[in-house]
Design brief:
Blueprint lengths: L1 E2 L9 E5 L3 E4 L9 E4 L10 E5 L3 E16 L7 E8 L4 E9 L16 E6 L8 E9 L9 E13 L5 E2 L2 E2 L16 E8 L4 E8 L4 E8 L2 E8 L6 E8 L3 E8 L2
Antiparallel strand pairs: 1-11, 2-5, 3-4, 4-11, 5-10, 6-9, 6-10, 6-11, 7-8, 7-10, 12-13, 14-17, 15-16, 15-18, 18-19
């Protein structure tokens, strides 16, 4: 899975306190656009905002690499926390902090060095783990700021977002139900369904108590995306259950 930020957000979302994440053409690694947490004047105090990947399912020996250039205060605690959210276990692990106090990291990476690559091993997570990657930018309130963080060319090796079918003559991993997108959702959610068995299928939406909230039905074979309207249900944690030849469940969150 890769995002060079040339085709828009590609499923990445951002939110939080003083959120300044945006796609810019003012600086990039390749070729014209990148994510920037800041604006033409730089970033501000008291920020706590995240740039979050689509929901992923990890394969064995997964890893992430990205390119970044940044300018933050040398003293204080302004910087990006690289976080992986394990959606299967409902936990979060901070893989690294890049910024103040550690501005010049391994191999001189950091302020004034231009675009540099960072890579991280994700093989400690079991294959099949549902996860999201987050770049969370936090700043203090000392008034010392800079131009902020630019992130580009994000590549996650060993991860998938749903059915991939046949590619180049080789069989790729087939997933009966992909991950819901966007997640969290406020208005509508989309999910890819795949089944080759000639039989009816159901897609049920359940609340955390197990109560059926809504149900969509159809006939297999199916290899397409189904859209659900969630604008009229209360915010909270829900589960999508796809039943065809097997049953597959995915967790999703509805916000208001």
């Amino acid at each position: 899975i890769s995002n060079d930020v040339e085709s828009g957000a590609s499923g990445w979302t951002h939110s939080g306190t003083n959120d300044m994440w945006n796609i810019t053409d003012s600086n990039s690694h390749s070729p014209n656009h990148s994510w920037h947490c800041g604006d033409a004047a730089g970033y501000v105090n008291n920020m706590d905002c995240g740039l979050i990947s689509p929901e992923l399912t990890l394969a064995p020996d997964a890893s992430i690499e990205f390119w970044t250039t940044f300018d933050v205060a040398i003293y204080g605690c302004d910087g990006v926390y690289l976080i992986i959210h394990d959606l299967t276990a409902s936990t979060a692990d901070t893989l690294d902090f890049i910024g103040s106090g550690g501005a010049l990291g391994p191999a001189g990476k950091g302020i004034g060095t231009g675009w540099v690559p960072f890579s991280y091993d994700l093989s400690m997570f079991e294959a099949g783990t549902d996860a999201q990657i987050e770049f969370r930018f936090k700043t203090d309130n000392d008034g010392d700021t800079g131009t902020g963080f630019y992130i580009d060319d994000i590549t996650i090796e060993g991860a998938y977002t749903g059915y991939t079918g046949i590619s180049g003559g080789s069989l790729q991993l087939v997933v009966p139900m992909g991950v819901p997108f966007p997640n969290p959702s406020t208005e509508a959610v989309s999910v890819h369904l795949f089944s080759e068995i000639q039989r009816d299928w159901t897609l049920g939406l359940y609340d955390i108590s197990g109560r059926l909230v809504s149900e969509t039905t159809g006939a297999s074979p199916i290899n397409s995306t189904v859209n659900l309207n969630v604008s009229d249900i209360p915010p909270g944690i829900y589960f999508l259950r796809f039943s065809a030849e097997t049953e597959t469940s995915r967790k999703m969150v509805v916000l208001r």
